[in-house]
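ARCHIVE RECORD
Type: protein–small molecule complex
Small molecule: zinc ion
Source of inputs: curated submission
Record status: active
Notes field left blank by submitter.
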Amino acid sequence: MLDTLSSAVLSRTPAIDLHDLVSELFPLNRSLTGDGVRQTLAIVGRHVDLAIHEVPSGTPVLDWHIPAEWTIRSASISSMSGQRLVDFADNNLHVMGYSKPVQAVLSRAELSKHVHTLTDQPDLIPYRTGYYADDWGFCLTDRLWRQMTEDVYRVEIDSELSQGALTYGEVFVPGQTQQEVLITCHVCHPSLANDNLSGIVVMTALAMRQARRTSRLGYRFLFLPATIGALAWLDRNEPNLDRIQHGLVLTCLGDSSAFHYKQSRKGATVDCAVAHVLKHGGYPHEILPFSPYGYDERQFCSPGFDLPVGCLMRGVHGTFPEYHTSADNLDFVKPEYLDQSYAVIAEVLDLLDRDAVYVRIDGRGEPQLGRRGLYRAIAGQREAGGATQMDLLWLLNLADGEHSLLDMAIRADVPFARLEAAARLALEAGLIKPSVLP
Ligand code: ZN
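STRUCTURE (tokenized, with ligand):
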């Protein structure tokens, strides 16, 4: 029993230092497309068996087209005396994503149409993109912008929008069945630590974990540029989507906020599993209903697909002050929160993999437990694995082929492991047999 417990705890500790991996990935200039994404996936690929997919610019995917690939080499705003005031080399947030090239001398008034600041947070650089805007822009602190009082400035963006590709990564760990769990994160944000990088590193460690285990379910991990990456994957994998039994989008998992879980559109086992693990693990959390805004769950849960996919996060996008600013940095994400997020998801995956359905061999009335030594087993606790008499009674009552162990644990309001232990006892006593949900 103790050995089982300690190995469970060990298996919920990541095999790599998650914060170190965030730090390694942080400087790269990711966007919807381009070498920042490729470099990110190359680093992830040192830890897992990652397939890299390149989808050419212009390829139609569902109602969209893969955009041009964006490359940026340098960008700056300088005074006419040659002083560099804003430099992409200092912080990649300084340039709006997908900015087209520009080389000009502009009045401050003209430049102001291309400058983004945060008046409420004057010392932070905002993160802005203009993927489909055919525009250019700079992001800087409001404090600096107020100090820039000269009449004219020289601006330079050495960038390129060209026929290239959209890049995404995929790890598939096969299971003993054809059924799959889909787990995804975004890879399109530049130097932001919680939004994107926390999801990337937790997912990398989970893929490493699952690759070392034998599981009933297969696990498919997707590293996707937001929206268009998910659409491209859905478009290319439509014939196999019925294999997906459970799904999770992972984001913002390194901050100190309580957990937030956004339910799938249609209601699914994964919704129950995450809520169960958070509740019985004693983690402060909030369950949010589905809404058609947020991360890629809105693509996976769109009406033509309606997959059983929810979204797990700690801080919710748009609600914490560091969100989409230069304050979402390496200090904002903490090793202990990354590790805790990993542990929670590992437990959810274990639960989904071990969930099972049983049916009573003779379902008429309550079986006589004493005659089978079951009261003694429960009193002994050791062999019972923590199951109580009530757990056993719940199991024997709900083992009708229509309730899974998770259903029973929720109904009994006890941890899943106790119903699992009760099932072991009942199996050994010849009272139940495995079944499948109708
Ligand atoms: Zn974001």
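CURATOR ANNOTATION: The chain has three domains: 2-66+165-354, 70-162, 357-434.
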